Amino acid sequence: MAMGVSRLRGWGGVGTMAVLCALALAFVLLLPCTQTPHHRPAPDRAGQQLAEGSQVRADACQDSEAQKQTLAPSGADGPTIDAIKARQGVRRKLVVGVDQNSYRWGYRNPNTEGAQLEGFDIDLVHRIAQDILGDPDAVQFKAIPTSQRISAIQDGRVDMVVRTMTITCERLGQVAFSAPYFKTGQQVLAPKASPITGYNGTLAHKKVCTAAGSTAYAKLDADRKAGTLPASTDISTTVPSQLDCLVRLQLGEVDAVVTDGALAASQAAQDPTVELKGAPFTTEYYGVAMRKDASDLVRRVNRVLVAYRASGWQASYDTWLSATLGKDSSASKPPAPQYLRTS
Question: Of the candidates 255, 251, 163, 252, which has an alpha carbon nearest to the alpha carbon of residue 209?
């Protein structure tokens, strides 16, 4: 379906900004944190109540249980945290890989002074920095494309990635994850006038865009091989970052986008000519990703998340996501965390 450039004009100028942002994502940009966001839930120092549950063996991982492959919370420092705290002067910051173009998750708001970073993921980053360094603004943000999230951690460019990153068994072989902080699922995004009705046979002979290295592409590839997705569905269009798919859709270069429903809902809010088609067809959980050997940092982040779920998570959801996902946040809250037994 050709949609043409006229759709970009009908997008109130946001489409043009999206094109520029997509081009910018060809680079890994250094984003200094110099402003205080207009909203940030206050740090919570209340006692923590740890959830209990059956544990899953690390060597028997299944994607449906991958969110349980994490270490129990702890406030103790260790070599990774010690190294972060030992940084001198302006370098004494938590270095975090984020998105800068996912509306309401991690994006630069052009209507704020300095186009500061805002969103649900950004709130969580500030909470972690407050706990580790005692200052919510002690953060050095780095914009990381979807396809470079894992390599940025492994190469030591960042201490962690907080970027709508789904916990999977394959990724657990490369990085460590915190307990989940958000629940979502894959959905189809397409023009309202499109005959596509969801993740079904209406995708036959359609061109679908996904981000390289995403769980969306892995799902489409596996389902097409298994015959549960029409063999004629063209899934060859992959891009470095998910926002690039929205731009391709606006330009009429693809017929649909498959991505996390939480992200797609925000994109539909930006562009009134597109909408979610059908229900989510997977269940996925976002986690904070860190180096596999950063056990002390994983445990500390899990401690932060216990408190954040009790006080902070809902306020951030209400601020950033309720307008696109609805006031009832129950479908987006991850289950009570479960942790690996280490003894």
Answer: 255
